[in-house]
Write a structure and sequence with these properties.
Strand content: 5-15%
Helix content: 25-40%
Structural class: alpha/beta
Shape: globular
Largest sheet: 7 strands, parallel
Low-confidence stretches: 91-98
Length: 359
């Protein structure tokens, strides 16, 4: 593929996508960042001020990614796009109508792919942000004998019928990622697009916000980050409280996940594959330990728990994805760096919220 790229990035204001945008710009690529509103563009313009007004960064608004032709105008470019990275999809763990997950994920993915075939025939590679939720059985028992080892060949067995018949986010969210990804692969297999496809399938994504000043209060944090805050840092906790059970022990640093997207978009051998980006394993106890080291001022709040008990029970599922390092050349950060880089940001956001409330 060409050394210089013109790239369309959807969902550009997201937690992960801002890191992707930063890395693409630092690599020298020209990017159009797509959000759902002008206010989100203004937020990005503040965070990426050094690039605003240059040929390297421009913006577009797509208010409803599920509407017919949603991306057509955004996909028109001179010079033309040769790469599209589609990250836009909802992720939150609260009870909502199943369509709140399924429609944006599946229809949004179909709209971007259809738009490419209509108005951006120069696109050679499309990268879709999928998820571990499209790989694993999220409602089955996590413990088996022997332990299940997930790979990029696995698919979540959820059915559309089950997803449409419930408001349980542990079913509807994984279904949205599973069927959006399957629809993308089917689109390519059926010859509807002339581009190559790759997906990135991260488990829990942890690590620092690209620009923490965008967050006014903890409640505005992205899902994976607010789970850490609520479990281990919220003000009503005490060090003697128990450490809550771990939701998902497989994780990747947000910066490494962002780099995986860039590599999946530009490495020739990345085409046609699912990239299961597992940086390592960490439990809530391990996160608590690192936060207590990084934030001595919060030691009366962060639960001590059983500091030496940082492993999951025997038989718990695991993962194997050596191809990410072997083919993409991605090197993962250690968990300590991931959590310790995030911790001070959470304290800063908490202080900002308190100051605003008392003003």
């Amino acid at each position: 593929m060409a050394a210089s790229h013109r790239i369309l990035l959807t969902g550009a204001n997201g937690y992960l996508a801002q890191h992707i945008l930063s890395q693409l710009l630092e690599e020298g690529y020209s990017v159009r960042a797509i959000t759902r509103s002008q206010s989100k563009i203004e937020t990005l313009q503040k965070a990426f001020g050094e690039w605003v007004g240059t040929a390297r960064l421009d913006f577009g608004v797509v208010p409803d990614i599920t509407s017919p032709g949603a991306f057509d105008a955004a996909l028109e470019s001179t010079p033309p796009f040769d790469i599209v990275i589609h990250t836009a999809s909802p992720f939150f763990l609260r009870q909502v109508e199943s369509t709140d997950f399924l429609d944006p994920a599946i229809k949004g993915t179909m709209e971007i792919l259809s738009g490419i075939t209509r108005v951006a025939p120069g696109v050679k590679r499309v990268v879709v942000t999928s998820s571990f939720a499209a790989i694993a059985d999220m409602v089955g028992s996590p413990i088996t004998n022997p332990a299940k080892i997930y790979t990029n060949a696995d698919w979540n067995p959820v059915t559309l019928e089950a997803a449409r018949g419930t408001d349980n986010p542990m079913i509807t969210y994984p279904a949205s990622k599973t069927f959006a990804e399957k629809a993308a692969w089917d689109f390519v297999k059926e010859g509807k697009g002339k581009f190559e496809l790759a997906t990135v399938n991260p488990p829990a994504v942890f690590g620092p916000l690209f620009d923490s000043s965008q967050i006014a209060k903890p409640e505005d944090l992205n899902q994976s980050t607010i789970m850490i805050y609520n479990a281990l840092l919220r003000p009503d906790l005490k060090s003697s409280d128990p450490v809550p059970p771990t939701f998902l022990h497989l994780y990747v640093d947000v910066r490494d996940c962002a780099r995986a997207h860039m590599l999946a978009a530009t490495v020739p051998e990345a085409a046609g594959k699912r990239w299961f980006t597992v940086g390592g394993k960490i439990t809530n106890q391990g996160i608590a330990n690192y936060l207590r080291e990084a934030l001595p001022e919060k030691r009366d709040v962060i639960p001590i728990g059983e500091s030496s008990n940082t492993k999951m029970p025997e038989g718990w599922f695991d993962a194997s994805a050596p191809e990410v390092e072997q083919v993409l050349g991605l090197k993962y950060r250690p968990a300590a760096e991931t959590i310790k880089d995030l911790g001070p940001q959470l304290v800063e956001i908490e202080k900002r919220a308190a100051a605003s409330a008392s003003a």
